[in-house]
Every structure is written in structure tokens, then in C-alpha cells.
Amino acid sequence: MDATSITALALLIAAWAFVSGALSRHNLTGPMLFTLVGFLLGNPWWGPLAIDVETRSAHAVAELALAMLLFADASRIDLRALRRQAAVPLRLLGIGLPLAIALGTVAAFLLGPDMPWALALFIGAALAPTDAALSAPVIEDRRIPLLLRRSLNVESGLNDGIATPVVTVGVVLTASAVGLTSATESVAFATVVRELAVGAGAGVAVGALGGWAATVATRRGWTTPGARRIAVLSLAVGAFGLAQAAGANAFIAAFTAGLAFSAVASKDLVDTEADVVLPELGGELLALGVWFLFGAGLIPVILAYANGWTVLYAVLALTVLRMLPVALALVGAGLPRRHVLFLGWFGPRGLASVVFALIAVEELAESQHPLVAQAIAVVALTVLLSVLLHGATAGPAAARSSAAPEPGDADAPQARRGHLPAADRGASTHP
């Protein structure tokens, strides 16, 4: 993006922020609007702004936005309460996510004409992670049972990182298949496990040290609330950067850093809710830019390469390919059918899938292979439909809910001063 594009985007964000509350009351979300504006202003045919998503910088901005929001979301999870209700999120992550990747891969292979397994694996893995931001009005509504909101929170916080190695494998194998590499790079299972473990360890170390330091500094009067918020922002970025430098999973690192910071910081001295404002707002700001890039760079891919099978797959990805794995994962969990359906539907695809699409653009676009372009198109189309459908149905679904707030709902979301409206946030927003 050149100076003109950055200036235009900054002014558009400012203008939108002034009216975002009014727009959210009509279910017009930030992702919706910035996707549309990005396409209108940055498309390659007649858009006045020069936008190039085939760059490392676009990829980096999207990753950092997701990491900061994962940190902020994780910091609001009450780990002690979560331990009492861990079965459902563990089922969604340990059973539902692998099933969703496998089912999505098989569906892409069968539906896509001449679709290689490697590219089908990329599609299945890129569209398996969920982004609860697009259903934020639902999961932030205290009438919705806390178990459901907490389960969506943890699932969407961790599934991005778990799916990342699988996406990487798909991209690497596809690059070899289309001739971008001389030989298939080896991605061993042990390497994937190491990336997850080191990422989690780096995140816990940074978050726990930061929580301890925040407590000590506050107790001894060495810091101020404003300075502490700057420190917390640095922790989020630091956990992300440390994991990347170590060749580990940066999304897992960001999420576990937020968990560790919240667990270690003294609740009597450190106001976690206020201290994570900067990483949350920073992530929201960057995420709006990512949705702008999505509209400018990936919507044209949809228009150029979408066809019958990509449309069918996108519809299946938001319904059967999500709902069936969730239903199977929750067999025997004792949840009412309506709760299973709720968890199955409110699994929107958002920022993580956009990040994975940008990875494919950066790594595979050089091949100019039509199947690669179709794979990127089907991921982008699924995200676009999710932005529209989940954004439009989240508010009405919350309004129809009649469940009373649960006792001891300590981590239920409250109105947060200085934050963008929940319905308009650009990335994950969880209780």
C-alpha cells in the first residue's frame, strides 16, 4: 500500500468509528463495510487505490492483528471456571477440528475437478478454524448459556494455531505439485508437535513473567495504569515475535500468553480488563485494514475464479462441514440438541481464514495455476458468505435467546469503555 492508500484507509476508519454504534444497531459490521469499501476502492479493474496483497507485509499485518486479538480474548478467560466446563471445548478441539479438516479435505477433493490432495488439504484446513467475532453479539449476550460462550471462546482461540501447521503442509505440498519447488519439503509430525509445544511454552513464559512483573510493579508503585497497558501491548507482540523467531506457532503463543498473564497477575492489583485495551484496540485497528485488503485483493479473485463447485463448497463449509463434526464431537456430552445446533452454526470463518488465504497468495500465486486460484477463491468466498450470514444472524439469534444469566458468570462480557462495538469488531471477540 502506498501513502495515498494508507491515508485513505486511515480516514475511512476514523469516519466509520464515529458512526459504528449506529451501524451496529442495523447489523452492519466492520468486516462487512470494510470488505465492501476495499473492493470499491482497491479492485484491480477500476479502483482508484493501488492495493497489492501478494506481499509479505500484508501477510504480516493480518497475522499480527489476529495474534493481538487472541491475546486480548484469552486474557479474559477465567481458567478456574474453565476447568469445571472443559469437556465441551476439548471435544470441539480434539474431535471436532480434526474431523472438520478431514471432511473438508475430502469434500474439496471430490467436488473440485482434478483437485490434488495437497490443495484439498489446504482448503479443508484453512476453513476449519472459526472466528467468533462475526457472532460477537451472540457470545457476548449474557442470556446465552455461559458454557456455550466459553466453549466458542476457547475453540476459536486455539483452533487457529492448531490448524496452522496443517495449512503449512498443504501449501508446501501444493508448491511442489505445481513446480514452485524442486522437491517436496519434509514436514514431519514431530516438527508440527514441536511448533505447537514451543509456541505454547513461549506464550506461557512471556505471559506468566508479564503477569508477575505487572503485579510486583503495581504493588511497589513502580508503574502507572497507562504504562502498564503499554507493557501488556508489548507482551502480546513479544509473545508473537518470540514464537516466530523460534520457528514455533505464533498464534498458540499469543493465546497462551493471554491465558498466563490473566492467571498470574494479581486480581487485587492488576485490572486485566483495562490493561488489555491496547492490544485489543490495536488488533481491531489492524483487522479493519485486513478486511479492506480482503475486499481489494480477494473479492476480485472470487469474481474471476468462482464457479459452481466453489459456491457449493462454500455453502457446505458453513453448514454440513461444520455442523456434522460438531455434532459427532458432542455425542455423549449431554447437551440439548438446540445447543449443539447453536455451536454448529455459530462457527463463522473470519480473520484466520483470511490469513491462510494470504499465505497461499504469497506462496503460490506465482504458479498462476487455475486450481490454486480456485482454492483461494473458495476460501475467500466462504469467508465472504460468513461475514454476511453470521453478521446478519448473530444479533437476531441473541435477541431470541431466553436463557437467564448464569450465577457466578464472572467472565461474562461487559460493556467496555473505549472499545469498538462488539458487532463491528474486526476479529475475535469473546467472553
Features:
18 helices, mainly alpha, 71% helix, disordered C terminus, 431 residues, single chain, globular
Descriptive report:
With 431 residues, the chain is mainly alpha-helical. The radius of gyration is 20 Å and the shape is globular.
Briefly summarize what is shown.
This protein is mainly α. Helices cover 71% and strands 0% of the residues.
Number of strands: 0
Radius of gyration: 20 Å
Order of helices and strands: HHHHHHHHHHHHHHHHHH
Number of helices: 18
Report helical residue fraction.
over 70%
Topology:
Blueprint lengths: L2 H22 L5 H13 L13 H19 L4 H6 L2 H25 L5 H10 L9 H4 L6 H32 L11 H31 L5 H21 L4 H15 L7 H4 L1 H29 L2 H11 L1 H10 L7 H9 L5 H14 L5 H31 L31
